[in-house]
From TrEMBL:
Gene3D superfamilies, sorted: q2cbj1_9rhob like domain (2.60.120.620)
Source taxon at top rank: Bacteria
Required cofactor names: Fe(2+)
Name this protein carries in UniProt: Phytanoyl-CoA dioxygenase
UniProt-listed SUPFAM superfamilies: Clavaminate synthase-like
Keyword terms of this UniProt record: Dioxygenase, Oxidoreductase
Length: 290
């Protein structure tokens, strides 16, 4: 059995250095303009979180998961070598790699990430929800259908969540970068579609007015850069038919004080937290407190 890194709630490697003085955090703060853009549009892109050497280190760890002979780990919450039902289009998707690999553990405590996350959560303490890997191989990478993240997360309340998507390759229109529908975070909660199903499955849930405002904006970014989005922001990504892969990880967080909204399983392998009780402890660590 693998060593379970979810028991360690601090940096354990050399990817990042935790600031020692309050003034050291200033280097990681978002500008007022960036926060305002997020509030208005429901997303904020092109936030640098990693240098190239850090990207390279994470891709080395990721390569083990993507190896066709990888036997898996009992520490994953989910592991799907292909989330798509179509074998001709591949979408690698997993949850729980923070428990297995040192680098993917430590990115949760990346100072640039936790500071930005706290600011975008109205300067509240940040608590970890879960992580994800989304990888599209060259030439036949699958889609991630239009969706809202919170439509899959109603088992946690209140809605005070935030998603951070970070590219481990340069993300372009050609290789399936994320697209957003600006201001769609004001449209309310919609039903959840099949994540790797038809790209436009969400469209039938929209009103005529919402359809008229449905203008996707592609977010092209260099590897190591991030985009943050609101839990109701509609987003998705098209297939990768390019000659290059499109690898990325996602960190999902919420403001401290979020509670369970189910007596069922929150994440596979995580002990049940009864309805109404605070999400905290081993699997939901506090990442940052301003």
């Amino acid at each position: 059995m693998s060593r379970d890194l979810s028991k360690i709630h601090e940096l354990i490697g050399d990817l990042f250095t935790w600031p020692e003085r309050e003034s050291d955090w200033d280097a990681f703060r978002l500008s007022e303009e960036q926060v305002a853009f997020f509030k208005e549009n429901g997303y904020l892109h092109n936030v640098k979180l990693l240098d190239q050497w850090q990207v390279d280190r994470l891709n080395e760890e990721l390569a083990e998961f993507l190896d066709k002979d990888y036997a898996g780990s009992d520490l994953f919450y989910e592991f799907k070598s292909n989330e798509s039902s179509d074998p001709n289009t591949v979408l690698f998707h997993s949850l729980g790699h923070w428990r297995i690999k040192e680098g993917f553990h430590d990115i949760l405590w990346n100072p640039a990430f936790v500071m930005a996350a706290s600011q975008l959560l109205d300067d509240k303490p940040v608590r970890f929800w879960h992580d994800q890997l989304f990888c599209k191989p060259a030439k036949h990478g699958g889609v991630v259908a239009w969706h809202q993240d919170y439509s899959y997360w109603t088992r946690s309340v209140p809605m005070q969540h935030l998603t951070c998507w970070v590219g481990l390759d340069d993300a372009t229109v050609e290789n399936g970068c994320v697209h957003y529908i600006p201001k769609s975070h004001t449209w309310g909660l919609l039903d959840k579609p099949e994540l790797a199903g038809e790209m436009d499955g969400l469209m039938e849930m929209l009103t005529p007015e919402q359809k008229s405002l449905f203008h996707p904006v592609p977010v092209e970014m260099k590897a190591g850069y991030a985009t943050f989005h609101h839990p109701l922001a509609i987003h998705g990504s098209y297939a990768n038919y390019s000659e290059r892969p499109r690898r990325a990880f996602v960190i999902n967080v919420f403001a401290d004080g979020t509670r369970s909204n189910t007596d069922g399983v929150l994440l596979d392998g995580v002990p049940v937290i009864p309805t109404g009780e605070k999400l905290e402890g081993q699997f939901f660590p506090l990442l940052f407190e301003p």
